[in-house]
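Task: sequence design from structure.
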């Protein structure tokens, strides 16, 4: 989400992963996918991304933990001082005990060196069979459980996770690395820095992801709207990772010029939106052919993998091909 309303919270690392559930309990009849509500796309995202809910046609990626580039294994310590996406410095040694509060980063770390991971959120669904301690949701992690694991690094996302939780962990002396990409290129560079901090620079899967996005397939230009939640309707707006993913594939987001990253629409607004295509991710809200398209009669519906749209990690390898096929219908 990642994304953004957020995953654990709702839109994962997509966007609306605002608490994958922020108060999702009240919306449990909505078919949303997580314990949270819009807020974390992104993205997924992340997540929601989103962060963010289950998703995937990416069986091929689950096995990447096995390929995990541990060859880079290391005595390589982290650089003397590097900064996370929010400019916070990290000057410690390469960590050996990592807790991830972001589903897409959990997958990324597991694909790089699974031995590093000791904890993850309840929404960290990839890779399949991940066997680590669970620490609650992305928006409301159990900080006591995190502390009890004695991590030497916690990884978080600016959209998926709350600033107060990051601050509380840092106040306890636990280093926290925060990511905040809003474009594909930023995500790739952010992952590069994270892998360097882990002492596992340049993993094979990240090189594959860069190659996949160097010249991705493009659809003929199409104007689209991307709902990430309903009741109320929320859509992708400006400066989101998922929006950039779609732009790179030839999709013009009609709300890209909105002052808001996740604009809310009134109940009857969807039918008047000037779009040819309406893109329905399966997270953070679980849209289906019977739940969503009826509100947008003017546009062709396309159902896409929320994980591939809003997560940044190994899913980026398959995302261009898979999303293009899903968008083409």
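Answer:
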């Amino acid at each position: 989400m990642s994304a953004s309303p957020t995953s654990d919270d709702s839109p994962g690392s997509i966007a609306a992963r605002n608490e994958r559930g922020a108060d999702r309990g009240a919306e449990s009849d909505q078919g949303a996918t997580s314990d949270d509500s819009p807020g974390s796309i992104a993205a997924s995202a992340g997540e929601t991304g989103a962060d963010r809910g289950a998703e995937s046609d990416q069986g091929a990626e689950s096995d990447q933990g096995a390929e995990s580039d541990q060859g880079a294994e290391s005595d390589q310590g982290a650089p003397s001082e590097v900064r996370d996406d929010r400019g916070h410095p990290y000057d410690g040694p390469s960590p050996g005990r990592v807790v991830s509060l972001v589903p897409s980063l959990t997958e990324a770390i597991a694909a790089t060196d699974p031995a590093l991971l000791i904890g993850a959120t309840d929404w960290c669904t990839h890779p399949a069979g991940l066997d680590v301690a669970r620490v609650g949701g992305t928006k409301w992690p159990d900080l006591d459980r995190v502390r009890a694991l004695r991590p030497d690094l916690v990884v978080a996302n600016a959209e998926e996770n709350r600033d107060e939780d990051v601050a509380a962990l840092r106040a306890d002396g636990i280093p926290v690395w925060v990511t905040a990409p809003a474009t594909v290129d930023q995500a790739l560079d952010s992952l590069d820095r994270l892998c360097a901090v882990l002492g596992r620079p340049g993993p094979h899967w990240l090189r594959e992801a860069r190659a996949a996005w160097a010249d991705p397939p493009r659809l003929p230009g199409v104007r689209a709207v991307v709902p990430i939640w309903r009741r109320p309707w929320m859509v992708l707006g400006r400066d989101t990772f998922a929006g950039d993913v779609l732009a790179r594939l030839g999709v013009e987001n009609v709300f890209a010029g909105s002052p808001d990253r996740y604009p809310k629409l009134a109940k009857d607004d969807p039918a008047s939106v000037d779009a040819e295509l309406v893109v329905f991710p399966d997270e953070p809200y679980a849209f289906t052919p019977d739940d969503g398209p009826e509100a947008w009669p003017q546009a062709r519906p396309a159902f896409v993998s929320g994980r591939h749209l809003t997560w940044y990690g190994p899913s980026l390898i398959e995302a261009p091909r898979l999303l293009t096929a899903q968008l083409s219908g």
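Residues 61-213 form a domain with the Rossmann fold fold (CATH 3.40.50.1980).
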